[in-house]
Amino acid sequence: MNPAPLRALARVVPAAALLLVMTACADDSPPSSASSASEPASPQASTAPAATTPTGRTTAMNIRLTLDGHHIAATLNDSPTARDFAAQLPLTLSLRDLNQAEKIADLPRKLSTSGAPEGADPEVGDLAYYAPWNQLATYYRDAPYATGLVILGHMADGGAEQLATADEITIEAAP
């Protein structure tokens, strides 16, 4: 028996299941008020439909980051790159500091950058994909525009302070 079709199916099924879960969880109720950055998102907040952040970035999926035992709410945007990242969750990654402004981590595989802009100017609290190095980049201080950077989403208030001292991050769909 040829194992290639089974390997292909093993890749497609988790992504399809995630899409079904995201679609089934969407509702028309307004998003609930933001929870404390060190508290997990409530179930009602985790099923909120796509919203727009104060910076105008559309969000598609609520996720939870765990940094040194503290739960931080975050959202991923509705880009092909962010959806590809979400398909890899849950992830636990070792963090390294870069330029005293961001924490970076190697990802298990390259993400799709289909339709992504040439680069981005990250903000404090952003989650991003640095395509040239296949790394997750998370920002706790201001950093300049970078070619090859794709913004994936944003942490809730307070997340950047926790990130500054963290050595490991766990990222999962919000409960």
3D structure, described in words:
The structure is a single chain. The protein has one domain (4-25, 40-48, 61-173): Beta Barrel (Cyclophilin). 22% of the residues lie in helices and 34% in strands. The protein has helices spanning 4-25, 43-46, 80-86, 159-163; strands spanning 51-52, 58-67, 70-77, 91-94, 96-98, 102-106, 119-120, 126-130, 135-139, 146-147, 149-155, 168-173. A hairpin with a 3-residue loop joins strand 5 (96-98) and strand 6.
Secondary structure blueprint with pairings:
Blueprint lengths: L3 H22 L17 H4 L4 E2 L5 E10 L2 E8 L2 H7 L4 E4 L1 E3 L3 E5 L12 E2 L5 E5 L4 E5 L6 E2 L1 E7 L3 H5 L4 E6 L2
Antiparallel strand pairs: 1-2, 2-3, 2-12, 3-11, 4-12, 5-6, 6-9, 7-10, 8-9, 8-11
Share of helix, binned: 10-25%
- How many separate helices? 4
The level-1 CATH class? Mainly Beta
- How many discrete domains? 1
Low-confidence runs of at least 5 consecutive residues: 3-55
- In total, how many beta strands? 12
By helix and strand content, what is the structural category? Answer: alpha+beta
What is the fold named in CATH at topology level? Cyclophilin
Architecture, according to CATH? Beta Barrel
The overall pLDDT, averaged over residues, is 77
